[in-house]
Amino acid sequence: MEHSAAPLIRLENVSFARGPHRVLQGVSLQVHAGEFLGLVGPNGAGKTTLIQLILGLLPPASGRVLVLGEEPQRLGKKRSLIGYLPQRPLVDPHFPASVFDVVRMGRTVCRGLWRFWHREDDLAVYDTLQRLHLEGLAKRPIGELSGGQQQLVFLARALVSRPCLLLVDEPTTGLDREAQDRFYSLINTSGKESDLTVVAVSHDLSALVQHTSRMIYLNGTLEEAGPVEQERQVSPRPDLLPLTSI
Amino acid sequence: MDIWSFAFMQRALVAGLLTGLLCALVGFFVVLRYMSFVGAGISHSVFGGMALALWLGLPLDWPAMIFAVLLAWAIGYTSRHGDLHEDVTIGIFFAATMALGVLVVSTFTGTYVDLFSFLFGNILGVTNADLRLLVWVTAAVSLFIIFAFKELLFSAFDQDVATAMGVPVTWLYYALLTALAISIVASVKVVGIVLASAMLVLPAATGFQLSKNYRGMIAWSLVVGPLATTGGMVVSYVYGWPAGATIVLVAAGIFSLAFTFSPRRGFWSRFLPDNSHPDTSHPNA
Questions:
Q1: CATH architecture observed for domain B3-106+113-268
Q2: What is the complex's ipTM, to 2 decimals?
């Protein structure tokens, strides 16, 4: 696919090591607006590290990372244009916050540090909850929800600042296949509605492949996995979960 | 005779109210972030700072405050960057600074020191200078918490995502440690070193028992903190009991009532018909 506009994410020959262990080696990648990129690979392949490099949480040992045309550490307020959904976090079941409060946290940077909430933030929260069919849960304490519901709330938190780029890192771990499909369908629908670019990480190819526009295989280095249509039909790599269940 | 006609009682009342508010406000995040042992570590370290100030012939408040802030940062840094867990780090600093204080007071100061009032407070001995310090600290800490509230709440709930989203989580952590340290130093005159950490926890823990939402938790904390300090002060005056200990016992009594009878989280509520089961009717549950 040809892209004329500048990519939202550009990685140029990026390497990263943890001590003596080399996690990523010479990774180059471009992600353009509107793409739904699936990043798959076995456990320990460097998928989460790659997401953390894109978020600027880790500095590359060599190479260059550009997000929205800037180095991630220098994004400033543009950071609110990135939504992030990590692996299912351990939620303190007694934390005194409602679903509404948790989703609104996603607008912290967008509202501006050290500023008070505005009515506009509340409206954005209700709008996002409605889009994800979560409006009925708005007043419920977050700790009282099931794991699947909590993860949807965290998706709402990632989307509430109306980002142009969404990074999701193994968000469906622990969910059954049906719930996984619904989850990625929701991301897909939201993406199409708001021209969202999505990078989704999973070790489970079969969970992702139905929803992505491009797949990439990562195991220290990157390998383009080919057109998605082809991936949906060919035999899987031996180190990935079988495609037969799709 | 009206006990409030005495100037020292009026100062004590204002000091009690301010300490109650200050401890309740900082204590909200202490309880939410499981930092009560950090509070205990910092409050005990204040003794080392005060002893050093005595030895050097300096006024007590500012050196104690600087010492407490530096120690709070050291605890924060060591827990974040060292291989030791936070509670181990605090245990080490806690013991070392108390030992330093005892050594300096007993060996080098050569002056009479009312150790008991350091350790357990002397609210009736609050001076105008103590009050001024308390007013400044309460104002500064309140402003910080009011303006940084949404960021502090986000990082208390999900530090990793808050960091990823650009919230200055590390900066906020050290700022909270600083607020905690200066609040403890300002409260020491009222409740003492040993009991200051209790006042940081009890009002907020009571608020937690009484509410499932942070707004209610803060509101209850801000009611319970001043109520415990002023109530404890009156009881201690009437019965001639030590003020610091009485204040903490009143706060503990209020907490016990909330822990037992709170309709939301109380012990007895477990035996009531349960209507708070997770909603599993949602398609993605």
A1: Orthogonal Bundle (1.10)
A2: 0.86
